[in-house]
Amino acid sequence: MKNKTKVLVVDDDPAMRSLLSFRLENAQYDVDVCESGEEVQQKMQHEFPYELILLDVMLPGISGVDLLEEIKKEYSQCQVIIMTAYPSVRMGVSAIRKGAFDFICKPFDIVQLLKIAKNAEENLSLKKENQVLRQNLQQPTGFSDLIGKSPQINAVRKSIRQAANSRATVLITGESGSGKEIVANTIHKNSLLHQSAFVVVNCGAIPENLVESELFGYEKGAFTGANKQQLGKFEKANNGTIFLDEIGELSLVAQVKILRALQEKEITRVGGNETIKLNIRVIAATNKNLEETVRQGLFREDLYYRLALFIINLPPLNQRGEDKVLLARFFLEKHTFMEGQTQMQFTPGAEKFIKEQDWPGNVRQLDNCIYRTVLMNAGKEKLEMEDIKVLTPMEKMSATPNSSLFNGRILPMSSLEAQAIRESLQLTQGNVKKAAQQLQISRVTFYRKMKEYNIEKKVTVPENF
Fold first, then answer.
1. Which residues, in sequence order, are bridge partners of residue 276?
2. Which of these, 4, 105, 397, 436, could form a disulfide with 30 (CB 3.0-4.6 Å)?
3. Domain, as residue range, for 445
């Protein structure tokens, strides 16, 4: 069954909000309403799942046109239809130039509005297809995207083929940044379940009190704030694959809940009585030595043996020799394409420098380094050794009192966080989405940190950027 399109109606007239909500829900849309732009801005700081927005121009406080610009800057895929009681061709053209899909004048024919909404849905569908094509370049999933020719990576490919041909639970081990999610995704894409969902769960990011509701979902009214039924990660992955990343970070209490779901092959939503049968492939990953954590009593032995039916160990990047250069070339091509820049090449000296680095952050560090290099060398065709922007490892920075991070004195963590937020905004020219990606935090967390440290999005880009 197709999921309903999420629609947000923004209008200060309660009668108009009620009318639109009623007619859109009858047309099988999932509708929320807001009466002001400020209310929409509050929603944008948290979850903002809307694919279509009906936006009145004349709102109290921030205007609809200004709000349109904010929405399109942060949620470019969102389709916005402008509503106005003051028909003006110039206003309509201006709104469309600023990103609106279309505009309609009040009073309007509801049939006409629904037709525009349908057209917006179709346009969004085309955009999503295009986004999938772009993401295929951004996020490797196939064997050909497991870049490298080293014996170590060839052994990983062999293990992936073996794992993909079975339904056995897989445990992927390796240092942070070594590519565990890519391996998990490749297993899924080459398995019999490849046409079903691949659901990623960052176990280390789930608060203890939310484990059950996140993993197994909840019913409406199960707790304060549970205004509607919510499917959990396991149910979303049913008939497909669930990837439990950093499973070693789960508490013993949470491990018991996972173990029961795996053993019984069924779950119950929080606040519910219905038993939901699971037909699911489980892949887990960790950067810890789980055998050691079992001995320490920090990880359940029975869960470990249930997960470790098939183990794939990813080598750190510093053990993969020439793969460093092959990966760097791949990332260089990827990021120049994604940034719309002229294709760049490394000089032999630059490639020698890349190969000689240890890359303690593994593939992720190399990827981020090359992305940063592309951003800071726009317009260049040849990249020299000195152009490669390797960030100084934290342990070296803390051992150097006169480094730019501390400037001769130890700073509190809050100051370092604020500095990281500001500099990431500078390096991405105020693009919050890219800045959050490079800091490897969610956009919601990024906005929260900006608010916490009173940081404005409008930053001055350094002259030497």
1. 267
2. 4
3. 320-452
Do 354 and 384 fall within a single domain? yes
User: Do 101 and 217 have their domain in common?
Assistant: no
Tell whether omega for the bond before 107 is within 30 degrees of 0, i.e. cis.
yes
The predicted pLDDT at position 397 comes to 43
> Are both 81 and 121 inside the same structural domain?
yes
Q: Is 139 a residue whose pLDDT tops 80? A: no
**Closest listed residue to residue 102, CA positions, set 76, 84, 125:** 84
Residues 350 and 250 in one domain: no
Position 114 in a domain: yes
Q: Would residue 464 count as lying in a domain? A: no
User: Is residue 232's pLDDT more than 50?
Assistant: yes
Three-state SS sequence of the chain: CCCCCEEEEECCCHHHHHHHHHHHHHCCCEEEEECCHHHHHHHHCCCCCCCEEEEECCCCCCCHHHHHHHHHHHCCCCEEEEEECCCCHHHHHHHHHCCCCEEEECCCCHHHHHHHHHHHHHHHHHHHHHHHHHHHHHCCCCHHHCCCCCHHHHHHHHHHHHHHCCCCCEEEECCCCCCHHHHHHHHHHCCCCCCCCEEEEEHHHCCHHHHHHHHHEECCCCCCCCCCCEECHHHHCCCCEEEEECHHHCCHHHHHHHHHHHHHCEEECECCCCEEECCCEEEEEECCCHHHHHHCCCCCHHHHHHHCCEEEECCCHHHCCCHHHHHHHHHHHHHHHHCCCCCCEECHHHHHHHHHCCCCCHHHHHHHHHHHHHHHCCCCCEECHHHCCCCCCHHHHHCCCCCCCCCCCCCCHHHHHHHHHHHHHHHCCCCHHHHHHHHCCCHHHHHHHHHHCCCCCCCCCCCCC
Residues 86 and 151 in one domain: no
- Structural domain contains residue 1: no
Mean pLDDT of 446-455: 83
Give the Å distances, CA to CA, from 92 to 8, 85, 96, 106.
20, 12, 6, 13
Beta bridge partners of 382: 345
Is the pLDDT at 283 greater than 80, yes or no? yes
- Check pLDDT > 60 for residue 459: no
Summarize the confidence of residues 104-130 as an average pLDDT.
83
> Model confidence at 144, in pLDDT bands (50, 70, 90)?
low
For residues 107 and 25, state if they share a domain.
yes
